[in-house]
Design a protein that fits this description.
Tyrosyl-Transfer RNA Synthetase; alpha/beta; five-stranded mixed sheet; Rossmann fold; single chain; 13% strand; Structural Genomics Hypothetical 15.5 Kd Protein In mrcA-pckA Intergenic Region, Chain A; six-stranded mixed sheet
Length: 472
């Protein structure tokens, strides 16, 4: 039988107020599939020949990637699939960012050894609203970045479409779900998924709710395929099983459909962004670097990429920037001649900060970086305050507290050091500085002469942790 998906408005009919289609310039770019592979943005593809056929088809078909609303903002772990979507967008493909307002209430078992706690419905709704703003902000800034990095042509490209799968799941009854999706799902195939096998071996096992998650996400792909001409799903490599569920469902529909599609559906996964120890970056891992400057300051965001190990610079320049592969090769070659100058890291930090936070954000990151490490700080106090406006490193302190409290206590009270003993140990080891001068007296207090321009003092613990105390 033919699957019966309830229709919603297709891309061309989405309402103007919320799902606006914007005509902008597109760009003169290398062929898409080889470019994605050469940049290391492809982990697996269900059918590369089909992907090539879809990419070459006119008119352009839509591509989508899902975002789990477990947090209220995007983090750097989202950047790889977002960059993949950006490459599709600048080549004229309609791009859909699907927020899992429905699936987020169940929880994705992929990559997890324990079951997620059910999220509160109101929290998920709040996260969905915040994520909409984050997604729009990223693609708005990224499109401006693309205009500055790739020669424009006279063609047009689509603005990002943001969807929420609660639209079609909220009124999807169990019987309809079983007749539409369940009848085509093979239990042995579902059990073979890596995410399921991992959980079946764990002591807690796997709940039925999480077991069926792959079918819910599979239906998302099917729904967008039927109603929005979406033929490609992009996701992290941990989503492979869920993506296959959608492709399988679409293929089953095609087998029983009178109107056969010559294109079909394709799943594409991107590598996961991991730490040096192999841990996945993300909120649940406790190491998220957010794209929202209110959650991660622009300075911290910039410094995160500036601290990229030499071995990862070429890979990250290819993944996270739109610089040509030829220029990246030249940069890496020059970097290898004098790695201590950190040419590749500086370019990477500049490019990603510009793409995410725009020109103003990059200027702010440059100013803060230059000022916090400048040995000659005289006359720069107001510049430092301006550069760190809104940054948690900048703390305003009463004059009596600033001048009458031991420096190590100021460091602890304002979050620079975790404890008094840790602060004193750092001072004793000459790893603590005041205005870029090493401090040796464990019990010293600040004097008026220590205040730059009579306004601020900069405390530094180790090489990277800063605290700027300013008089209220």
């Amino acid at each position: 039988m033919q699957l019966s998906g309830r229709r919603v408005r297709p891309l061309h009919a989405l309402g103007r107020a919320r799902w606006r289609k914007v005509q902008c310039r597109t760009f003169i770019t290398p062929p898409l599939v080889p470019e994605l592979k050469n940049r290391g943005l492809v982990s697996q593809v269900t059918r590369e020949d089909k992907l090539q056929k879809i990419v070459e088809h006119r008119p352009k078909k839509a591509v989508y990637a899902g975002i789990d609303p477990t947090a209220k903002a995007l983090h750097v772990g989202h950047l790889i699939p977002l960059m993949c979507l950006l490459h599709f967008q600048i080549r004229g493909h309609p791009v859909i960012s699907l927020i899992g307002g429905a699936t987020g209430l169940v929880g994705d078992p992929s990559g997890r050894s324990q079951e997620r706690q059910f999220a509160e419905e109101q929290k998920v709704e709040n996260n969905v609203q915040r994520l909409e703003g984050s997604i729009k902000s990223f693609f708005s800034s990224a499109s401006q970045y693309a205009l500055a990095r790739i020669p424009p042509s006279s063609k047009a490209f689509h603005d990002i479409y943001i969807r929420n799968n609660i639209e079609w799941h909220k009124n999807f009854g169990l019987l309809e779900f079983l007749r539409t999706v369940g009848v085509h799902a093979r239990i042995n195939t579902m059990l073979a998924r890596d995410s399921v096998q991992l959980r079946l071996k764990a002591s807690e096992g796997l709940s039925f709710a999480e077991f069926t998650y792959q079918l819910l996400q599979g239906y998302d792909f099917f729904h967008l395929y039927k109603n929005s001409e979406c033929h490609i799903q992009v996701g992290g490599s941990d989503q492979w099983g869920n993506i296959l569920a959608g492709v399988d469902l679409i293929n089953k529909d095609q087998e029983h459909s009178e109107e056969k599609s010559e294109l079909g559906a394709v799943g594409l996964t991107t590598p996961l962004l991991t730490t040096a120890s192999g841990d996945k970056f993300g909120k649940s891992a406790g190491n998220a670097v957010w794209l929202d400057s209110k959650l991660t300051s622009i300075f911290d965001f910039y410094q995160f990429f500036l601290r990229t190990p030499d071995a990862d610079c070429e890979k990250h320049l290819k993944m996270f920037t739109l610089l040509s592969l030829e220029r990246i090769q030249d940069i890496v070659k020059n970097h290898s001649k004098a790695p201590e100058k950190r040419v590749a890291q500086r370019l990477l930090a500049d490019e990603v900060t510009l793409m995410v936070h725009g020109k103003a954000g990059l200027r702010k990151a440059h100013s803060a970086t230059e000022l916090l490490f400048d040995p000659n700080l005289l006359g720069r106090a107001q510049d430092i305050i301006d550069a760190l406006s809104g940054d948690p490193r900048l703390v305003f302190v009463d004059k009596d507290d600033l001048l009458n409290t031991a420096i190590f206590k100021l460091a602890v009270q304002n979050g620079l050091c975790t404890s008094s003993s840790a602060a004193r140990t750092l001072i004793k080891a000459k790893g603590f500085s005041v205005n870029n001068k090493r401090m040796s007296d464990q019990y010293a207090k600040l004097s008026r002469e220590d205040l730059i321009d009579g306004k601020i003092v900069i405390l530094r613990a180790g090489k990277e942790r800063h605290l700027v105390l300013a008089l209220t």
